[in-house]
Amino acid sequence: LIDRAAEDTEVILRALAQRTPPLKDTLEPRLRLADRLAFAALAPVMSEKVGGWLPDEAAMLRPTTAVTYFQKATSVRVIPYAPVALIGVPFSAVTCYQDLLAVPHEIGHYVYWHEPLARGSLNGSLARHFWDQPAWLSAWQEEIFADVYGMLVAGPYMAINFQEILADTKREHFITDDGDHPVSLARSYVFTSVLRAVGYDAVADEI
Questions:
Q1: Which residues face 84 on adjacent strands?
Q2: d(CA 45, CA 140)
Q3: Residue 162 contacts residue 143 (beta carbons within 8 Å)
Q4: Taking the CA of residue 85 as centre, how many other CA atoms within 13 Å lie in the half-sphere pointing to its CB?
Q5: What's the number of CA atoms in the CB half-sphere (13 Å) around residue 51?
Q6: Is the pTM of this model over 0.90?
Q7: Please, are residues 54 and 46 in contact by the beta-carbon 8 Å criterion?
Q8: Which residues of the chain have pLDDT under 50?
Q9: Pick from 72, 105, 131, 190: most CB atoms within 10 A?
């Protein structure tokens, strides 16, 4: 517990340092944009009273905020003791807006691990709800959820960005299971299926 708290504190201090001189002029404007994007991705599952889209009785999350910081790759730190999502974004996002498109996906991981306020049929977090699935699905389900969630809040931009990332991928990697992420072929199917479900059939056809 002490180690985890220390690691989280290091990340928070890094986020602070990147918003103060001498780094402020270079990094802070893009981090401010990333913060807004992350909070916008949280909003759909929060109460209307905290800027969300859902009435209180249907909200999944208590009032939550997000803080972004630069590191080598995109990731999320899920803090069990505070309602904040710490989202790491790659340094390349300083000059490339497109590299911020993974932020909604990372927010999906945060939502996956948090207890819904509205119990309903879930009776606990999604992580707990799906504990008894087959091994291959247990390994993939969090990533699949984050992909679907990211698509629902960011629309076709997520799918287009994913397609561009895979443009140079070797053919055999499309069906190689790394034990964590779904194979790329399955993720492509998830993206196009969600696009069709929300009315972007033409974009799905193009992809």
A1: 65
A2: 22
A3: no
A4: 34
A5: 10
A6: no
A7: yes
A8: none
A9: 105
